[in-house]
Each structure stands twice: as C-alpha cells, then as structure tokens.
Amino acid sequence: MTADIIDGKAFAATVRARVAEHVSRLAKQSITPGLAVVLVGEDPASQVYVRNKGKQTVEVGMASFEHKLDVNTSEADLLALIARLNADPAVHGILCQLPVPDHIDADKVLAAIDPAKDVDGFHISNVGLLATGQKAMVPCTPLGCLMMLRERHGSLSGMNAVVVGRSNIVGKPMAQLLLRDSATVTIAHSRTRDIEALCRTADILIAAVGRPQMITGDWIKPGATVIDVGINRVPNGEKTRLVGDVDFASAVEVAGAITPVPGGVGPMTIACLLANTVTACCRANGLPEPEGLTI
Ligand code: NDP
Hints:
Elements: E1 4-5, H1 8-27, E2 34-40, H2 44-59, E3 63-69, H3 75-87, E4 93-96, H4 106-112, H5 124-131, H6 140-153, E5 160-164, H7 171-180, E6 184-188, H8 195-199, E7 204-207, E8 225-228, E9 232-236, E10 239-243, H9 248-251, E11 257-258, H10 265-284
Helix pairs in contact: 1-10, 2-10, 6-7, 6-10
The structure holds NADPH dihydro-nicotinamide-adenine-dinucleotide phosphate (NDP).
C-alpha cells in the first residue's frame, strides 16, 4: 500500500483563493482587512517567516503592517506598540513573532494583544473559548491540520486520533479541535508508555514533537491518516534538509494518507493566518463569518 500524499501547498493555495475572494467582497463595502506583524530582533528564521507573511498578506489584497523593532527594544516599548495596534481600527489581526529576546516576557506580550485581534490564537481568552467550544481565534497550525483532515474525511466523528506532543501552540489546541469534531482523542508526550502501540491505534495520527523522523512506519495503523507537523533541519552532506517528525519513506508504505515535509502542514499555517485575519475583520465589523475559513 502506498499512501495518498496530502498536498498542503495546493490546499493552501485554495485557502488563499478563498481568502482573496472574501477580501474582494469586503472591498465592495470599503473594508480592508489589516494584519500587523511585529518582529523584535533579527533572528534569520523569523525574518523569513515575517517576509513571507507580509508578502502573502498583500497578495490576497489585505493591508500588511510590519513593525521591525531593534533587538534591544524594551518590554514597555513593545507593550506600548501593541496597545497602539489594539486601538487602530485599520488593524484586525496582530501577531508578535516568537521567540522574543530574553529580556521580554512573551506571556506578557501575548496577554496584551486584544483577544479579538489575536490571529495566532495564543491569548488565554482564546485558549479558554476553544476549550469550552465557543467561538475563538484558533491557532493557525492546528487549524490548518483540521482543514486538511476535514477535506480528506468529511466527518471525523468517532475516529481514534492520537496527537503526539502537548505544546500550547500545536499539540493541545490540535487535541481540542479534534475533540470538538467528535474524534476520540489521546495526547501522547515524552512520558507516554509504549507510545508505538498507542500510535498504532490511531485512525488519525498527528506528529508535533520536534524530533526528526521519530515516528516510523511500524508505529502506524495501516490506512491511517498521518499529519506531520514537525519541521526539523538535519545534515545532508555539506548542506541541510528539512524533515518531519515522521519517517516519510517507511510511513508512506503503511498510511492511507500522509502530509509531506516540506509541502504539507507548513504552507497551511500562513494560509490560516490570513484566514484568521479575515475572520477577525468580519467579526469586528459585525459581518457573517467567512465560510470555509473558520470553524
Ligand atoms: P515543543 O517542543 O513545544 O513540544 C514538543 C512536544 O513533543 C512536547 O509536548 C514533548 O513532550 C513531546 N515530545 C518530545 N520528545 C518526545 C518523545 N521522544 N516522545 C513523545 N513525545 C515527545 O514543540 P512544538 O509543539 O512547538 O513543535 C513541534 C514540531 O512542530 C517542531 O518540529 C516544530 O518545528 C514544528 N512546528 C511546525 C509548524 C508548522 O507551521 N508546520 C508550526 C509550529 C511548530 P513533553 O511535553 O513531555 O516534553
């Protein structure tokens, strides 16, 4: 058996097209969704992410506000900027690129973002809203994974899902979303006993671990859908290459469907950031939620 490859790049393009369509509909009412991205310091990976986010924001017709701050920016100055963005009616989404430098308390910064503009879905209010099944801003990476799963399966009701990883940004919200869609959810982590056997019970297996190629084909139930969130850079001769948390070569022989790395979950994350910005904009203007872009 060879798994179907879930093409995240193509699906992300579809999501972006849906976003662009909503944006042009809003333009007829003279509304332009705006996304502000704040970057403190010059971390090279963060700079690439921020550039891509800005580029894609503009491509779908939204306004992009980039705030690149010096690495020595004080926490007070950063909080003052967040307060200004919270008050700015042209800004519907605010994202502070993590990690921030050590002298800044990331939790304090995330807590300062207006929950209605928290397009990353990390504010404690949104975490609580998601956990209690209410309308929330949903973290982009798990939202992208859920969209791909719904696209593949329609209903997830009654399926056994195992999420490997319990981080606040991927594992936990992913588990909440699956539960909300009536899957039976188990969360595995570094202390889980006999994790291989547990993974073999999964109809849906989500890998969000940060360990290159940890999950091999013999951990996978034949026919299962495998979503690989991991992004790991490993040596490749003189250079490096990206691999996931799943050993693609062995997993593809067993799974029913699998996301590749790169080209799976990664592209969906930015597409969902754009989707969340449109959702935030519609909510701010008292308009109906954009169909197919939110849960
Ligand atoms: P974290 O490091 O925050 O969390 C990793 C989780 O994996 C922890 O819960 C940890 O368990 C668990 N874990 C670590 N080792 C093992 C093990 N040997 N067996 C079982 N569980 C283990 O990572 P993130 O959630 O932030 O990210 C996970 C991966 O996803 C990374 O590769 C990251 O780069 C990638 N990522 C990709 C994104 C995308 O857009 N595609 C977005 C965000 C992340 P414990 O809690 O017990 O320590």
